[in-house]
Batch of 3 targets.
Target 1
Amino acid sequence: MGSYASMVRFHEGKLRNLRLPSAPSSLLLALDIDGTILEEGHPLSERLVQNVQYLRRVGVHICITTGRSVPATVPIVQQLGLGNTWIVSANGSLIGRYSTDTGYVLTNQYTFPVHEVLARVLDAMPDALIGVEDSPAGFRVLRPFPPGELRETIAVQSLEELGAKPVSRVVVRNPLMNNEEFATAVAKINLSGVQSAIGWRAWLDINPPGTSKAKGLQIVCKNLGVDSRHTLAIGDGANDIPLLQFVAYGVAMGNANPAVKHAADSTTLAVEDDGAAAVLEAICAILPGETVFESPSIAD
């Protein structure tokens, strides 16, 4: 797909053609985390953090839109240096604001009854690992997940306890299956009336009907007074498709699958090649005022 520098120039041209407003405070940028700004097993790249901090400093609104839970998202927000930002988490089921002064404050929460959904999942996959998220605190699970996964687990409970009240999300994981086997099993589950998306490593998210990252971003737009025609987003997963279709300029990562790329307006480099940073640097380039970097060498 070319070098980092050529990708910056490519997106700069695309952005200039959009004729976005010149005032940075009129823009809203939505960023997915895993597979977009963060490569598994690696820290955030220095130039990505530098770009994010510059954009925020000049007034561009930045919203983190993720399938992660709140406890798993806030550390990334802190590493990005975002002292005051909106977070759309759990694929749009939880929306809130984070600031260094108040911490995380939940503003919108969407829930749905899950007793029947849990039963259907276990009928199709009796050995599946299941968790439910019903608050920004974390997950309650039927059985512990593999080490390193779902670190936000706060309790192990019975199936009856998990389904006793409406929740914001159900996560389903089956480490005994590969992705293809998992997708085949999921296809046999009746998931009508809910939102669902298969993620990484035989992982399924099930959310309340009508929720999505896009719907969450609409709420953020309303709160910030930003026109949806002045929004941008970068993502890599199936749960990003509605978001990439909603914004004025949606960019799929180079590591995204064909369906995600098809939904986007454009594509960038893969996460391991700093594709998100290239898009952010292009946004920096179209804004009025001084450039973000003293030397262009960072874009080589």
Note: The chain has ten helices and 14 strands.
Target 2
Amino acid sequence: MSKFRLAPAGPKKEKYDVVVVGAGPAGLSAALYSARFSLQTLIIAEVLGGTLTDAGIIDDYMGLPNIKGPDLARKFEEHVRSYGVDILLDKVVDIRREGEVFKIKCVSGSEYEGRAVILAVGSVRRKLNVPGETEFAGRGVSYCAVCDAPLYRGRVVAVVGGGNSALQSALLIASYASKVYLIHRRDSFRAFPIYVKLVQENPKIEVVLNSVVTEIGGTKTVEWVKIKNVKTAEERKLEVSGVFVEIGSEPPKDFFTRIGLEVDEKGYVVVKPGQITNIPGLFAAGDCTGGKFKKKFDQIITAAAEGAIAALSAYEYLMKGKEEIERPTY
């Protein structure tokens, strides 16, 4: 799946019951369920499939083992299209409420109206921005240890990062790999002490501090990574079959606050049970969400579930006050 291909069928109108912003697992699931609830639905997204388009082999989505990320995204898209959902490849730059509807403006200048909005824009994993990272994405460079760790059974890999996610990833990968280099740019980890202790006690993990990755290379797949000591400037090459980048991710906080959404201390949209935000009629799902009611476990299956829940909440919101309207059951 090309990230930049044009959607074969664009919007047929300008007014919808539900406008879904984002087309990753959460957004596509939200659109599917909205359509199943007989709501006229539009998806607006820059990329169909979201971060699935960057994923390699996915082995943790039940019923579809060993499927490539782009292939899974394509299956999701085909399923959504079968329900007549309109899809627009564009970037949403503004969402504002006007009376009983929302006005959604795109970077292209086009504008659409929705009686409810489901925000599912995800969060973006920070990248190293070094030579080879983009070229080997999905071919040895990974941003999800839970997804890809089993693929490196008996191999040598590198994990880059110093926070909880990096150390947790290193520990998980070490249960499969023969050796794990844990590379961190500082002289100590910022992760919880328990994770640091577990890493130090694991014979498969070699900690490489005060070092940064400068290049990732190989032929068809990753074969090595170059690192540089930030204090001594010493450089060396490590032979590895994979590089897991775990330096955090970030949501588009500025966009959220600009449209009036409440965000948590990390910039994620605060949601209550039902994927409800502080703006009536605007729901949020997937990796872009947070708050005290949110258990952060950013997986395809959890994002899809939240998308379905958001669609149900949108349906109930739109049906509120109408007599003899029952919740759909299957």
Note: Confidence is low (pLDDT under 50) at residues 1-6, 323-328.
Target 3
Amino acid sequence: MPKVAFWQGNAAVAMGALAAGCRFFGGYPITPSSEIAEVMAEELPKIGGKFIQMEDEIGGIASAIGASISGVKAMTATSG
């Protein structure tokens, strides 16, 4: 029987990103995307990934771009 999991939308986004190979998250926890950062902070270290809480949304996207340019699958999340 296949494994079934039920998540809230933000947790599903984070788990989907991890399943797709995301290994870096740089972001600032802000409503309504805070849960994505929470899941990534908990799960990334378990698989050798890196989570960095940035000082603001600009820092989040800048760090994700830098990680991506270096060849790492990366993401950020923000409010809009």
Note: The mean pLDDT is 94.
